[in-house]
Amino acid sequence: MDGSCTDDQSTTTETTSTVAAPVTTPPLIGSGGSVVLDLEGGLEAESRKLPSSRFKGVVPQPNGRWGAQIYEKHQRVWLGTFNEEHEAAKAYDTAVQRFRGRDAVTNFKPLPADTDEAGLEASFLNSHSKAEIVDMLRKHTYNDELEQSKRSCSLHKTPFTDGFRSGHQLVNAREQLFEKTVTPSDVGKLNRLVIPKQHAEKHFPLQNGSTSKGVLLHFEDIGMKVWRFRYSYWNSSQSYVLTKGWSRFVKEKNLKAGDIVSFQRSTGPDKQLYIDWKVKNGSGGRQEKSEIGTSFHGYRVGLLFSCDELIWGYD
DNA sequence: ATTTGTGTTGAG
DNA sequence: TCAACACAAATG
Fold first, then answer.
1. Which of A24, A71, A214, A256 is the most exposed place for a label (fewest CB within 10 A)?
2. Which residues pair with A219 in a beta bridge?
3. Residue A70, C-beta contacts closer than 8 angstroms, at least 6 positions apart
4. Which UniProt keywords apply (predicted)?
5. Which nucleotides of C are covered by protein (CB under 7 A)?
6. Are residues A166 and A134 both part of a single domain?
């Protein structure tokens, strides 16, 4: 039935590219189509032909997913595979801007240029090699890296951010590692939190020997309470997880599915790890009593970040 | 057993 | 340059 592609047939909006791309996709394939034999075995009209994407740089994969690719110097550069067609299209957009410059033709980009955001992303792109950008795209970590880049340099125009150079008030500067919106099972009776593979491997690499038995990680929360979680890799589900100790965190913070947990790490030599959480976005303020009085902490870690270019602690 | 992504080709 | 298609290399 509907199994075949999700032919929304263009929702118009998709062709918002700057200049070209006025048409994208012939409205409808030649109805008459000249294709003499359409009926054949007719079992699955799908099994034979692949969907064919409406987006530039996007190609269908046999398993229903989407691949992104860009060409340079006569050869293809693979940008990875994605579940959603538009994700692949966005990956292409990112790549094409890094490869061909600011005003290359994209699938979406030319959205209301955020003036500021655009500049930040542009500098982010240029501060990385093509290979690095491609790598991020293939690993699906581009957005995280970009966000992190934005945070580290809040170097606006303000010449002096008074209040900061207090000399001794300089608390631990942290960098955001990643966030995860917890699933029902993360806060359920399985007593474990699955850490998305790409983040786990990047930030919490397990040593060869530790893979099976795992390690004990220490995290400090907003109230300076230290949490210890067993971190290991589960071969059965092939996933990285926080197990022992996790359920207590869920209980104390009263975490619910949809809430977001965030992991940070000190940028200093200590490499101290931090954990924080916030209630699901738009969750009309579900504030449980939470005896600990944590009531609501605005997730302000973002303000504590340091920028590599800002040197402060050098006594 | 699946999935990725490369080899290759033909069209634009 | 680009995507369609086939299928081998890579992964699980």
1. A71
2. A227, A273
3. A57, A76, A77, A79, A92, A95, A96, A99
4. DNA-binding, Ethylene signaling pathway, Nucleus, Transcription, Transcription regulation
5. 1-5, 7, 12
6. no
Q: Which two tokens stand for residue A19?
A: 């200049």
d(CA A121, CA A147): 9
A20 in a structural domain: no
Do A286 and A166 share a structural domain?
yes
pTM of the entire structure? 0.54
> CA of A80 vs C1' of B4, distance in Å?
8
Low-confidence stretches of chain A (pLDDT beneath 70) = 1-48, 111-115, 152-172, 208-212, 281-315
Domain count, chain A: 2
Does residue A255 contact residue A249 with C-beta atoms inside 8 Å? yes
A207, A261: one domain: yes
Give the model confidence (pLDDT) of A6-44 as tens digits. Answer: 333 333 333 334 433 333 333 322 222 223 334 444 444
A26 touches strand C (CB under 7 A): no
Tokens standing for residue A305: 């970040």
Residue A81 CA, nucleotide C11 C1', distance (Å): 14
Q: What is the pLDDT of residue A208?
A: 67
Which of these three, A106, A140, A174, is where a domain ends? A140
CA of A202 to C1' of C9 (A): 25
**Beta strands across the sheet bearing A239-242:** A174-181, A260-266, A273-278, A215-220, A226-234, A239-242, A193-195
Per the structure, the complete domain to which residue A214 belongs is given by 161-314
Residues A282 and A221 in one domain: yes
Separation of alpha carbons A55 and A38, rounded Å: 26
Q: Are A62 and A26 contacting, i.e. CB atoms less than 8 angstroms apart?
A: no
CATH number of the CATH domain containing A282:
2.40.330.10
Please check whether residue A303 is in contact with residue A151, taking contact to mean a CB–CB distance below 8 angstroms. no
- Classify residue A285: in a domain, yes or no: yes
